[in-house]
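Extended Data, panel c. Modelled sequence:
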Amino acid sequence: MMNSIVEQMNVFFNPRSVAVVGASRKVNKAGHVIFKNFVINKRRNVFKGELYPVNPKEEQILGFPCYPSLKKIPGEVDLAVIVVPARYVTETMREAAEKRVKAVVIVTAGFSEIGNRELEEEITEIAKKAGIRVLGPNCLGVYDSETGVDMLFLPETKVLTTGEEVVATPRPLPGSLGIVTQSGAFGVSALDYLTGRQMGVSKFVSFGNKCDVNEAEMLRYLLHDEKTRVILLYVEEIGNGREFLKVAKEVTKVKPIVALKSGRTTAGARAAASHTGAMAGSDQIYNAAFAQAGIIRAENMEEFFDIGRALALQPPAEGKNVAIVTDAGGPG
């Protein structure tokens, strides 16, 4: 079962083929940005898989032949990235099931976070019956600098009115920090922060509404990822608490987990619910759970990244062999 989960999660980061459903020629569309990310990385020989744009209104996008639907793609599809309006996602999921797609990332919003739970349950049921693993909906997806998988729909560069091309959303350098976040907006801020401080990232994954894939499964995957030495975890709520604690205890014996939990106050909990449909839960319970699992809890964003940086550059000491030198008793 463990190997099965690791293999399932690996499809999101290292697929042999990717279809972008909702790929577009319009540069301001998320479907264009995401597909262009893959195209650029393929031309750089970083992304080595097959690439298929899907859009019934286009014949070709960025030099790649375009297909009207997933079913019309001639080859196998490991991973589908869905960037179409919410009302079309159900039909796209049915096509993915018929095509025997292994994994799907639903970037599209408009589900449980706005009260549309029935639609989210419908696509979850389709995926479950077909054995498709789903990331999202309402998420930023995955970024992996090593394999060239880049679903960030914020363009890396933009062209000014003067015609000059400048960096807009820089991608981080390869490194040892694995980032697991429920919030896409927080994820973008995190990547920007880390890039500015030249802190490298091994893997980045954004869950959104978490209709299927959850933190426990991704933590298990990162446990076995050789590139990841430290895991930074941003959560609004955790669904299956028992499974999460079980996996987190295993992971923290090998790799440190640093957590930043939102929704600590009543107002914060309401904000989390409106953002990804999350029920934040009691902050005291999370404190106890994190301590029980050996997770280091950060109090704010700055502390979150400072702890991650420290652990990435200096692994935890083995044994009681740390000495403290101080000029006063209080600070010591």
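The chain has two domains: 2-138, 172-313. This feature is highlighted in the accompanying rendering.
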